[in-house]
Design goal:
The chain is an alpha+beta fold. The protein has 2 domains: about 25-270, Metal-dependent hydrolases (TIM Barrel, Alpha-Beta Barrel), CATH 3.20.20; about 340-380 and about 390-485, Immunoglobulin-like (Sandwich), CATH 2.60.40. The chain is built from 9 helices and 31 strands. The protein has helices at about 5, 15-20, 45-50, 75-105, 145-155, 155-160, 220-225, 260-270, 455-460; strands spanning about 25-30, 55-65, 110-115, 125-130, 160-165, 190-195, 195-200, 230-235, 250-255, 275, 280-285, 290, 295, 305-310, 315-320, 325-330, 340-345, 355-365, 365-375, 395-400, 405-410, 420-430, 435-445, 445-455, 465-470, 475-480, 485, 490-495, 505-510, 515-520, 520-524. The strands form 5 sheets. Strands 1, 2, 3, 4, 5, 9, 10, 13, 15, 16, 29, 30 and 31 form a 13-stranded mixed sheet that branches. Helix 3 (about 45-50) packs across helix 4 (about 75-105). It is globular, with a radius of gyration of 23 Å.
């Protein structure tokens, strides 16, 4: 995809241009689960799923819950039992886990090691380790108490450990964050989006609908900022079904100088991060030419703020927030250009009917560019729920420079408001009329249905194209209408009077429902 400096070449300053040339936003997932503890799906499947669409990742083992049985909260016995079983299981496979994570790097992805503490007292934390060889002492009972020590004394630049709080929005004492015990040195990043929901603010969407309860009080990103804390924000899936980076459940964007362990790690420590629900919406913000995550000295006069937003699909609007208040809303300025974007989705049909898809897409009169996979894993909310089919293949997307080939499985949406579709986005570069050619194979209940579609550019400018595989309530395919690149980009230039101690950040919303929240910039 075109870079921000290419798209906004007329607007970026020399200093911003240099920073953007030195950095790129990489996509990852820093918190998710599989069957190495309590969860579903093999570690090999989780690694393959991550390699299908991410730049960096970890797979997280459930490690300990020191205050699970201290009497502070009543817990159903079945919940106690499956946690203890999961903790013991992780310790039994720990060396195999480390070896598999080390080997995963050969697939072109940057791996990290992670494990999770539950805690009524502190809230839940994912411990992310840079060192792929580092172990931990055996503790079969899962009562390890080092979280207290980590939060009090950890310095990631010395230890190679990040303590990342997650699903922070739950009530304090119910595994939501305890801001009174938060240490921004130990925790340079905070997870504000996952399959639990979004906790940027008390009004953020998607809402918390998990069995653990609703968002409560000031246990949000904005609550932490109001207390004066400085931290980067990320999303992670927290999926329990071997699906790192599952689209729509939370992802992390990290601005880094290179796709390497050192590069990604340095980006995390510097708080150059974006919290995403799904699509890699790139937000590059600068205050007086200093990027997100920076602390900028107050000048006593208006300060220049610039932000550049570039998405794989159409943007709806973006908001600039100063001290948690929206000060201005911005919208794209649609125009006509040679750069187009499209979204393709597969799925629907009856809830208990699976379909195996093979789709090939090519174009005439245009060059295909920048395919963006949007792969989901099957939702598992209650860890005791068993996925319908563990044998389902990992989705794949291949682009040879001429055509895109996708293979995946889908089943009907589990509710009228839950999106289980699979898909991808892509761009076209064209100066005139063009056509998109689709070859579709769908195997449903042992029968294969084949379709060939030829869609002309004039058709694609007036609305999406829909194909049913074999009639009413059968699995279906949807190709979006043509989206001009100008609808996917937005820039902000403001002169702001800012007080010492203030913070400002940008949140952006796409037409298709994706959201991105940038890490703030702080005024000292």
């Amino acid at each position: 995809m075109k870079t921000i400096q290419q798209v906004f070449a007329a607007s970026v300053s020399a200093a911003q241009k240099q920073w953007l040339e030195e950095h790129r936003m990489y996509l990852g997932d820093l918190h998710n689960h599989c069957a190495i503890s309590y969860g579903h799906g093999s570690l090999s499947k989780a690694i393959a799923f991550a390699q299908s669409q991410l730049d960096f990742f970890t797979v997280t083992g459930h490690f300990a819950w020191p205050d699970m049985e201290d009497g502070s909260q009543p817990i159903p016995q079945r919940v106690v039992d499956y946690h203890k079983e999961g903790f013991a299981k992780l310790r039994g496979v720990w060396e195999e886990y480390l070896e598999a994570m080390r080997l995963s790097a050969s697939g072109g992805i940057v791996p990290f090691v992670s494990y999770e503490f539950h805690s009524f007292k502190f809230g839940d934390y994912t411990i992310i380790r840079k060192d792929l060889y580092e172990g931990f002492p055996p503790d079969p009972e899962g009562i390890d108490t080092r979280l207290d020590e980590y939060l009090a004394t950890n310095d990631p630049r010395k230890s190679g450990i990040i303590c990342m709080p997650h699903h922070i929005g739950y009530k304090k004492g119910y595994r939501g964050i305890n801001w009174d015990r938060f240490n921004e040195t130990a925790s340079p990043i905070v997870e504000i989006m996952s399959m639990h929901g979004a906790s940027e603010s008390r009004y953020a969407t998607p809402a918390y609908l998990h069995t653990m309860g609703p968002v409560c009080g000031e246990n949000t990103m904005q609550g932490g900022l109001a207390r004066g804390f400085r931290f980067g924000v990320v999303g992670s899936t927290d999926h329990h079904n071997a699906s790192p980076g599952a689209y729509g459940s939370g992802r992390a964007g990290v601005w880094a100088k290179e796709k390497s362990q050192d590069g990604i790690w340095d980006g995390l420590l510097a708080k150059r991060t974006i919290a995403l629900t799904g699509d890699p919406i790139r937000i590059a913000s600068f205050l007086e030419d200093r990027p997100i995550g920076s602390v900028v000295k107050a000048t006593g006069k208006p300060m220049r703020f610039d932000s550049y937003i570039l998405a794989p699909s159409a943007l709806a609007y973006a908001e600039l927030l100063v001290d948690n208040l929206v000060v201005k809303t911005f919208r794209p300025n649609p125009a006509r250009s040679s750069s187009k974007r499209f979204n393709l989705s597969l799925g629907w049909g009856q809830r208990d009917v699976s379909a195996h898809w093979k789709v090939t897409l090519r174009a005439e009169g245009a060059a295909i560019v920048d395919p963006v996979p949007r792969f989901k894993g099957e939702y598992v909310v209650d860890p005791l729920s068993v996925p319908t089919d563990e044998a389902l293949a990992v989705p794949s997307l291949r682009f040879d420079g001429v055509s895109i080939s996708m293979s995946c499985n889908t089943s009907g949406n589990i509710s009228a408001t839950t999106d289980n579709t699979q898909g991808f986005g892509f761009g076209l570069e064209t100066d005139g009329p063009y056509s998109i050619i689709l070859h579709v194979e769908a195997e449903v209940a042992g029968e294969t249905f084949m379709h060939d579609l030829l869609l002309q550019s004039d058709e694609l400018q007036h609305g999406p194209s829909v194909l049913y595989t074999h009639g009413f309530v059968s699995p279906a395919l949807r190709l979006s209408e043509e989206i001009d690149l100008s609808e996917c980009m937005l820039e902000i230039h403001e002169s702001l009077d800012l007080d010492s101690g203030s913070s400002l950040y940008v949140r952006s919303f796409s037409q298709s429902g994706d959201t991105a929240w940038s890490t703030p910039i702080w005024i000292d």
